């Protein structure tokens, strides 16, 4: 079970989209006349007048279940689960319209609710997306439904707008991170797919704090795409890749050290492997000179600056 939450300003547009969809099934209306899109819109707008200053009064949630759960879900059962979901989400005492669509293989239900409740108070949207994740996971486990195995099960063909771009970036990153030893190398690989890398720096310094990925006019932080694609997570994976490649090719390690040892001499004293790995101008071929430099410093009984982890 997965919930997707959006908010908007127009009840008319949202209701028309949900109700007038081909094969749309009006399951239930709570506080609104569900037999007609215009009547339902009028009811929603009448109540929103109790809080005229609230621009984003439209709440829209799409509840999606796995195709593996299709046999156990009829419209009535989906309605019961949607009501429980709203209760756990603390969306209550307000107008709600439940509409099922049959345009996809997996069962899904559209829920339109008024963020102005029956008493004229605003239903908060703070932490709503975080709570949505927790509630969906809890209910999936409670009713022994199919637990999706991450983003791999998302139907890319049905994605639109920002979601489509986000998953495109995700798939390209997932393919290329394991093949890269450094951020510069990863940048080159992503560029071939039209994806640009943008770094966030600590104020007044050249220390990188975060990373974003841009495709066309859309840009997403790494952590927005996936937890495993935050700046720190990618950096750790690149460092791991680098170490594995060195271990597999010791003869290349010695060659890199001879060629690049002098170039790294001045910087190795003050930076650890991860710092050098993350430098945008870093040459991944320089990695093995660090090991040579550490060995030399140890032999001279100088201070060890923590090149190892």
From TrEMBL:
User: Which Pfam families does its entry note?
Assistant: Relaxase
* InterPro entries cross-referenced by the UniProt entry: Endonuclease_MobA/VirD2
MobA/VirD2-like nuclease domain mapped to chain residues = 17-144
Segments carrying the region annotation (Disordered) are: 285-309
The superkingdom listed in its UniProt entry is: Bacteria
Under which name does UniProt file this protein? Mobilization protein
- This chain's source organism reads Pedobacter cryotolerans
